[in-house]
Design a protein that fits this description.
The chain has 312 residues and is α/β, with parallel strands linked by helices. The protein folds into 2 domains: 6-121 and 300-310, no CATH class; 130-271, Nucleotidyltransferase, domain 5. The protein is built from 9 helices and 8 strands. The strands form 2 sheets. The protein has a 5-stranded mixed beta sheet, with helices on both faces. Strands 1-2-3 form a 3-stranded antiparallel beta sheet, with no helix packed on it. Helix 2 (77-88) crosses helix 9 (298-310) and helix 3 (93-100) crosses helix 4. The two termini are 45 Å apart.
Length: 312
């Protein structure tokens, strides 16, 4: 039986063409000075399709990958592009390593760098209008950091890590994730050390435009939203209330069902990545936030991911 690796089915030349198209949609420009007075000067000696250039304005020499996350790696560009594609399909690091014939360390390193690159390049989220806010608690310890576990003098576990009961904290290995979603708009999620008013206020006031209507549950951390410059309505989940019609039009507008639906999507997304450490969790959250907000799948998603990574 012939063993065909996925990486052998992708043309390296096409990968460089896509990078050039997405990096310089209006023509090649110098990454140092931004000039379009650029001349080609052949190809890279070890990568046949990696075009090199010289800027006539500042004499800078550069190539297709200069100042991008894909520069200065031993893996060819096609492997990085395929890795990014498989991440968009939500394969685990182990699955990606198997598909691309990579060792566990290489797969882990590549996916971590790509997630960090996307999180670092994604645009700030700004929400206004009708916003739903809620929090979820994700069990996350210190996987891959035995020195932290040893410092805590904790015995090793044979079974799945279980966080403490009740509202979680970062120190309790059940970090809270605050979520804010604009109805018919974007979402913002961030891991927090705890859920206290002093913790959530700077996050919410940075992301949500003053005067917006915020819908929450009855949790008392949201009791001062009006003092912070917002309109506020809540539903009482503990009393069995999940949606309320206040204006009598038959539409139950007071709810956080959109945010709770998003939490279901997030849990499903995290499920293949068993045992995410709290050190890595923010990267997974930021990556999923980016994918959710651009609302693209398949080839369109891959192009958006590459475009974000090669953007100035």
């Amino acid at each position: 039986m012939i063993n065909i690796q996925l990486k052998d089915l992708i043309d390296d030349r096409k990968c460089y063409e896509v990078v050039r198209e997405l990096r310089w949609p209006n023509g090649t420009r110098c990454p140092r000075c931004g000039s379009g007075e650029v001349k080609k000067r052949g190809f890279h000696t070890r990568q046949a399709h990696r075009q090199r250039y010289t800027c006539d304005a500042c004499q800078q020499q550069f190539d297709d990958l200069t100042d991008t996350i894909f520069e200065s790696h031993h893996q060819p560009l096609q492997v990085w592009i395929l890795c990014l594609y498989l991440m968009g399909l939500n394969l685990s690091n182990e699955q990606i390593g198997q598909e691309l014939d990579l060792g566990p360390g290489d797969a882990q390193q590549m996916t971590s760098q790509l997630r960090a690159g996307i999180v670092g390049k994604k645009k700030p989220v700004e929400l206004s209008g009708e916003i739903e806010t809620d929090e979820v608690y994700i069990t996350a310890g210190h996987k891959g950091h035995p020195e932290i576990v040893a410092a805590e003098k904790r015995k090793g576990r044979r079974r799945k890590l279980k966080g403490k009961r009740g509202r979680g904290t970062l120190a309790g290995e059940k970090p809270p994730v605050l979520g804010m979603i604009q109805r018919n708009g974007e979402v913002f999620i961030q891991m927090l050390p705890n859920v206290q008013q002093v913790t959530i206020k700077p996050v919410m006031t940075k992301v949500i435009k003053p005067g917006s209507m915020i819908y929450t549950d009855e949790y008392d951390i949201y009791s001062r939203l009006e003092e912070w410059g917002y309109q506020h309505k809540s539903v009482n989940h503990s009393a069995g209330e999940y949606a309320r019609d206040e204006d009598g039009d038959g539409f139950h507008e007071v709810h956080v069902n959109t945010m709770e639906g998003f939490w279901s999507l997030l849990r499903s997304w995290l499920r293949p990545h068993r045992g995410i450490s709290q050190e890595k969790l923010p990267l997974y959250l930021g990556f999923f936030e980016f994918i959710h907000n651009i609302r693209r799948r398949g080839k369109a998603l891959l192009h958006s991911l590459i475009a974000a990574l090669v953007a100035p």
